[in-house]
Structures are given as structure tokens and as C-alpha cells.
Amino acid sequence: MKKYFTGICLTLSLLSSTAVAEETCVAGACFPNEMQIGDGSYPLRGAALFEWYLFDVYSAAFYAPEGVDTIEEALGDVPKYLVLHYHGDIKRQNIIDNSEHILKENPANDMAALRDRLDRMYTAYSDVGEGDRFAMRYEPGKGTTLLFNGTPKAVLEGVDFQQAYFGIWLSRFSVGSKFTQRLLGTRS
After folding, report:
1. Which CATH number characterizes residue 135's domain?
2. Rg (CA), the chain
3. Is residue 179 within 8 Å of residue 185, measured between CB atoms?
4. Domain annotation covers residue 142
5. DSSP-assigned beta bridge partners for residue 161
6. Which residues constitute the domain of residue 150?
7. Residue 163 lies in a domain
8. Label partner for 115 (CA 20 to 30 A): which of 3, 145, 167, 184?
9. What is the pTM of this model?
10. What pLDDT shows up at residue 15?
11. Looking at the 3D structure of the chain, how many domains does it have?
């Protein structure tokens, strides 16, 4: 009986240690390891914590097809999904101001061409509190959908728009190069 019990415990231990995690957690925010975008399912490429002066602002997760490993590939016309899980209260206007600052820093962005769509995006923003999530889903041919806690708030057309807006987190002019590398899965 003792051998039988030991065998069961060993088998259960091996099974639990080889199980694949279904989510990845960063600073208490958990994200599924796969995301549905349109008709496809795409893996988590990376997740990261964004801090500002030692304060946890948000945890982020980025989903895209296998092989999307560089900034250029991430900003290409491919399905993608970015989730921001907020760790505290932030006013809508602060989100807008910070977004505008980063967008203007990137010389690839034609702000005049983007202005109407940016204004529509900003209109859909709201104040956030701890645990709230903004997400952006890009589907080629359909555009970028802004979601707040899973509810669609706006759809913005254009490859140029998704390149500019996702570029806030995934470009050479992003919120931070180490953060971008972690989202792309190229840095641990």
C-alpha cells in the first residue's frame, strides 16, 4: 500500500510540474498566454511593468503572431493586441497628455494626418483606477479597436494610426527601450 501511495504522489508531482501555465503575471496583473484576434489565436510575446519614479503605473502584455520579434515587425500590418492593466488612479487628461508627448517625439508620425483619429481616441478615454484595463486590438483591414475593461469604445482606421499609437509602447520612441524589449520578448 505504501509503494502504491508513493507512486501516486510521484505521478501527481510530475504532472503538476510539467503543466503549462495558462497565464503570465507581472506585478500582480495576470494575462492569458494566448489572445483571440479576429479569426486567429496569437501567443503572448511579452509582458512588462511600467514604473514612474518607483511607482507601478501599469503592467502590459503584447500579443502578436510567432516571428514578430522586432519593432518593425510589431508595427507592421499584422494582428496585434496590447493590454494595459493600471495599478492606481490616473486622470484621463494625464493619459492624453502623455500619449501626445510620446507621439510628437516620434518623427515618423504625421500628427496632422493622425489628428482626427487621435481626437476620436481621446474622446473614448476615461479616468482609470486600480485594476482597470485599456486594450488596443489591431486587425488588418479593420483598424484599431480601443477597449476599456473589455468593452469596445472606438475603432480607428489605418495602418498609419496603429503604427503611431502602438508605437507609444513599441517603437524606438516608446515609453522606454527596456520596456519595449520586454513586450517583444527579447529581454527578460
Report:
1. 3.50.70.10
2. 19
3. no
4. yes
5. none
6. 21-184
7. yes
8. 184
9. 0.87
10. 38
11. 1
**Residue 12: inside a domain:** no
Written as nine digits, the cell of 188 is 527578460
Looking at residue 54, its pLDDT comes to: 80
Can you read off the three cell numbers belonging to residue 95?
Answer: 493619459
Residue 180 to residue 171: CA distance in whole angstroms: 7
At 53-80, the pLDDT tens digits run: 888 999 999 999 999 999 999 999 999 9
The answer to whether residues 153 and 32 touch, using CB atoms and an 8 Å cutoff, is no
If you search the block for the grid coordinates 497628455, which residue do you land on?
A: 97
* Residues 6+ away with beta carbon under 8 Å from 128: 86, 89, 90, 92, 95, 134
Q: What is the pLDDT of residue 52?
A: 86
Let me know if residue 8 belongs to a domain: no
pLDDT number for residue 188: 55
Give pLDDT, residue 9: 39
Number of Cβ within 10 Å of residue 141's Cβ equals: 8
As given in the structure block, the three cell numbers for residue 13 are 508531482
Q: Residue 7 — φ and ψ, nearest 5°?
A: -65, -40
What pLDDT was estimated at residue 186?
80
Name the nearest CA neighbour of 154 among 123, 182, 183: 123
Q: What residues in the chain have per-residue pLDDT under 50?
A: 1-19
Q: What is the pLDDT of residue 79?
A: 97
140-149 contact pairs (CB < 8 A, 24+): 140/77, 140/78, 140/79, 142/38, 146/121, 148/124
